[in-house]
Amino acid sequence: MTAPTVLRLRADDTLAQRLARSAALRAEGFALRTADVAGWLTQRARAHHFRVERIALNDLDGWFFATDTGNLHHHTGRFFSIEGIDVNHNEGAIRRWQQPMIRQPEVGILGILAKEFDGVLHFLLQAKMEPGNRNLLQLSPTVQATHSNYTGAHRGTPVKYLEYFTDPSRGTVLTDVLQSEHGSWFYRKSNRNIVMETVDDVPVDDDFCWLTLGQIGELLRYDNVVNMDARTVLASCPVTSAEPGALNTDMELRSWFTVERSRHSLTAERVPLADIEEWKRSDFTLGRDDGRYFRLVAVAVEAGNREVTGWSQPLFEPTGIGVSAFLFRHFGGVPHLLVQAKVEAGFLDTVELAPTVQCTPGNWAHLPEPLRPYFLDVVRVAGPDRVRYAAVHSEEGGRFLNAESRYLFVEADEAQAPLDPPTGFRWATPGQLNNLAQHGHYLNVQARTLLACLNAGTVRLDPTR
Fold first, then answer.
1. How far, CA to CA in Å, does 290 sit from each of 40, 95, 280?
2. Residue 180 within any structural domain of the chain
3. Would you tell me how many other CB atoms lie within 10 Å of the CB of residue 24?
4. 169 and 33, same structural domain?
5. Is the same domain home to 262 and 374?
6. Residues of 101-110 as b/e, b for ≥16 C-beta within 10 angstroms?
7. Where does the record place the dTDP-4-dehydro-6-deoxy-alpha-D-glucopyranose 2,3-dehydratase domain (predicted)?
8. Is 270 exposed, middle or buried (0-12, 13-18, 19+ CB in 10 A)?
9. Which pLDDT score, from 0 to 100, does residue 75 have?
10. Which of 79, 95, 164, 321 is the most buried (most CB within 10 A)?
């Protein structure tokens, strides 16, 4: 006799409540008090030898510039390459440009292991060294690895805890989604963002610690503590939303976004790195004469606790600090964020939702005021009474050198951010963005950083403080 088919709930309706309980525990968790994390990170930095030294481009070990294209490749054909790209866009102050771009046509794993202690979800983060981080060591996901790394192309030691994210039988998936990386610097790059819950008795390596979502939220108040990869994973967690409504229905918001994707005409054609216009190569850099945007540099790295303890690699180094800010207002008592449908040359689908302002101001200073990014001045002149959150966070430290952005939530009024915003902008609630973040390629990495701050309770957008 055939056993009856058993249907299961389509979604875990308790997960948001469990995450809320974890977000509420902010001062201490199972293993470590929040106030002690800074000291623990300092201890882990002293426990290993770390060194990053700039070197000449031609001194990169295992890398070569192809004689026919000038593209920069690893001798294995794995990891990533630096190529040129030619971009044409039908809108904007700059409609055609060429630049170097990182091409890495493989999907990495950004995985955080979760486990309940005393009925509260905790997340296993590691103190990970990345050569591009200004302070080198930051809190990262349990597993942060490219496909080349976790399949052993580097011939180093195995990635710790990888089995929890490659063997589905080891736990329960809480969230799992492909998300983009920086669309201005990566060509169509995606990573798997996953949180996996286990009931196993997990041995904890010295460079790892269990923290609640609330503890992580407290640490997000500080500069350069929680790395980009941890932030993007946390942004996809389905948190509780008590919003009674929104200016735009979920369908209206998605329809507007679809229209934005459809109306932009953008081509991004790969071209030889040696042929890109306005970029010149010297012994130590490939950059522009005007000093704008970024430059290609090379570093030699020593890291005692990495799978490989020494290597060299190219990095992109921005020429200024970025600004990524959401303006917010309240409508009907509900906080709304002003999102931007932003075109970036490396996106798979041309447009993703971005913060209201996302730019490096110095790159626009040479243009007349009407051609500079909308709302930039609103953010720059905002007084302390309007700035609800501000912190400097590193971008991807494995590919970018000293790449930092100042992340903000800034309260606005009708004169600064009207109910009917300019083309390319729309009001959306945090709950709406959280729903979209559980699907791939809706929110860009900068928007996901700010959403992570909301999910972890780092910032509150109440009408009164």
1. 42, 18, 11
2. yes
3. 13
4. yes
5. yes
6. bbbbebebbb
7. 35-236, 252-454
8. middle
9. 94
10. 164
Residue 62, pLDDT score: 95
Q: Residue 291's CB: how many other CB atoms inside 10 A? A: 11
Does residue 81 belong to any structural domain of this protein?
no
Measured distance CA(464)–CA(462) in Å, rounded: 5
CATH number of residue 23's parent domain: 3.90.79.40
Number of other CB atoms surrounding residue 255 within 10 Å: 12
| CA–CA distance, 360 with 70 (Å, rounded to integer) | 28
pTM: 0.95
Q: Judging by DSSP bridges, how do beta strands 190-197 and 108-117 pair with one another? A: parallel
The answer to whether 112 touches 124, Cβ cutoff 8 Å, is yes
Q: What does the alpha-carbon distance between residue 247 and residue 59 come to, in Å, rounded to a whole number?
A: 56
Q: Where are the beta strands (DSSP E) in 250-345?
A: 266-271, 279-281, 286-288, 294-303, 310-318, 322-331, 334-343
pLDDT band for position 322 (50/70/90)?
very high
Q: Are 112 and 230 in contact (CB under 8 A)?
A: yes
From residue 112, alpha-carbon distances to 151, 172, 357 in Å are 19, 12, 29
Asked if 403 and 445 count as a contact pair (C-beta separation under 8 A), the reply is: no
Q: What is the pLDDT of residues 65-116, one digit of tens each?
A: 999 999 999 999 988 999 999 999 998 888 999 999 999 999 999 999 999 9
Cα 376 to its chain centre, rounded Å, is: 21
The reply to whether 358 falls in a domain is yes
CA distance 142 to 191: 14
Q: Are residues 338 and 394 in the same domain?
A: yes
> Of 332, 337, 354, 334, whose CA–CA distance to 421 is shortest?
337
Clarify whether residues 226 and 261 are in a common domain.
no
pLDDT above 90 for 396: yes
Q: Considering the chain, what percentage of its residues have pLDDT values greater than 70?
A: 97
User: What pLDDT is attached to residue 216?
Assistant: 98
Spatial distance between the Cα atoms of 59 and 298, rounded to a whole number of angstroms: 8
Number of domains within the chain: 2
Phi, psi at 72, each rounded to 5°: -100, 120
Q: Do 213 and 343 fall into the same domain?
A: no
- What pLDDT sits at residue 464? 60
